[in-house]
Design brief:
Blueprint (H helix, E strand, L loop, with lengths): L13 H9 L7 H35 L6 H38 L17 H8 L2 H35 L4 H42 L3 H12 L2 H22 L5 E4 L4 E6 L9 E7 L1 H12 L4 E3 L1 H10 L11 H18 L1
Parallel strand pairs: 1-4
Antiparallel strand pairs: 1-2, 2-3
């Protein structure tokens, strides 16, 4: 079997990764976001727990006095109660929102895929739904969900068993003592669940990254096709090169006749220089070429009686250090001035 139809053994190219990101195929874990929100809420509760408890007591006493509230003062009592409840809940909501955004952006790299918001008719097809329901991905998600349920059950049972003697002993004390013991057990349970959920989220994220990486792998033929699409069809590239060569030759036909002198190697390099004392501060390169292009420059120069001077070291240096349209740099002033002076002497002698 030819390797064109081989297995997906090649690493995904940057273009394929970018296309996957644009389609929303980005590894992420919901459990990791939930764990961050839960642990962040617990830390905030540890910091503000005492003041929140005092506010709850105040709110409770206010409810006890509700029977004495008259109709004209009911609105103010409800407003005060609403503000107090908002002060208790808003910090947690804001923290959960911020942590969810931060963890989500950290997982996706800040990518926001608008295509995910586009409705898809395929999602309404019952056959596709059944296929997704019994897919390998659904089985893996089900297995991970069962593992999480088992872990939550084990942790809850262990925590309850650990605090059971304290809960039984608290039944004979005041209601505040029962509340204190129950709050301690709930805190321990929530903290343990948060840590376990964080570990599960990290594992889930690693699994998702592995799955996405595996799904993006390419065959050798796909890599070749993508490189071909990126670089362009060979025939089109050849045509572009031919067009560029044609345009370069047309430019030589215009620029070389305007040159003051052609500095050659004599056969490998040719650099056409133009200098006008009235309009230029320094000589300028109007054309340059190597091998067959250098030959063409010399041919055009001979047709238009442009002087050709053999200065091999100077020709190589000008070709390597200057671009077409660039003025001669100061390091070449003296050598170029000698060439121009030589050309002037030849012209005077010819006259």
């Amino acid at each position: 079997m030819p390797d064109d139809a081989g297995e997906r053994t090649e690493q995904p190219t940057p273009r394929r990764r970018q296309e996957a990101r644009e389609k929303g195929n980005i590894p992420r874990s919901i459990d990791l976001t939930g764990a961050a929100a839960l642990l962040g809420g617990l830390l905030l509760l540890a910091a503000l727990g005492r003041s929140m408890f005092e506010r709850l007591l105040t709110l409770t006493r206010g409810i006890e006095r509700a029977s004495d509230v008259r109709l004209d003062g009911l609105a103010s009592w409800l407003g005060e109660t609403g503000r107090m409840a908002a002060a208790l809940v808003l910090p947690f909501l804001l923290l959960i929102l911020v942590l969810s955004l931060v963890v989500g952006l950290a997982q996706t790299g800040g990518a926001f895929v608008w295509k995910r918001l586009t409705p898809k008719l395929d999602a309404l097809n019952p056959a596709n739904g059944v296929k997704r329901l019994f897919s390998m991905d659904a089985v893996q998600r089900l297995g991970l969900g069962l593992v999480k349920i088992a872990l939550v059950g084990v942790i809850a049972w262990h925590t309850l068993w650990e605090h059971l003697p304290h809960l039984l002993a608290a039944t004979g004390v005041s209601a505040m003592g029962v509340l204190y013991v129950g709050a301690g057990a709930t805190w321990t349970l929530a903290l343990r669940l948060g840590v376990v959920l964080l570990i599960v989220g990290v594992i889930d994220l690693l699994i998702q990254r592995w799955k996405v990486e595996r799904s993006l792998r390419m065959t050798r033929q796909e890599v070749r096709d993508e490189m071909k699409n990126m670089d362009g069809d060979p025939l089109l590239k050849q045509r572009r090169r031919q067009l560029q060569a044609r345009l370069a030759m047309q430019r030589l036909q215009v620029d070389v006749p305007k040159a003051s002198v052609i500095v050659t190697n004599p056969t490998e390099y040719a650099v056409a220089l133009r200098y006008d004392e009235e309009t230029m501060s320094a000589p300028r390169v109007v054309a340059k070429g190597r091998d067959w292009l250098a030959l063409r420059i010399r041919q055009i120069a001979e047709q238009h009686d442009v002087p050709i001077v053999e200065r091999p070291p100077l020709a190589r240096a000008l070709y390597a250090n200057l671009d077409v349209g660039q003025e001669v740099s100061p390091q070449f002033y003296r050598a170029v001035a000698e060439v121009l002076a030589y050309v002037q002497r030849l012209r005077r002698a010819a006259v």
